[in-house]
């Protein structure tokens, strides 16, 4: 299930599509393929957040975000129920 969100770092706001949401992190794909998202930033999951994350780029323009604090299971359940 794709979840729409936004990464915010400094003065940059990047719309993203979030997947593989779990307690310790998630994967996401920025809408713009030429943006550079790396290091610590704030992640909004839908209208919930911000959550402080550290990101790293994976293959294919995808990113992995690791939450600073574990995500509450109720938030995960809300976005993964289908």
Automatic annotation (TrEMBL):
Record's protein name: Uncharacterized protein
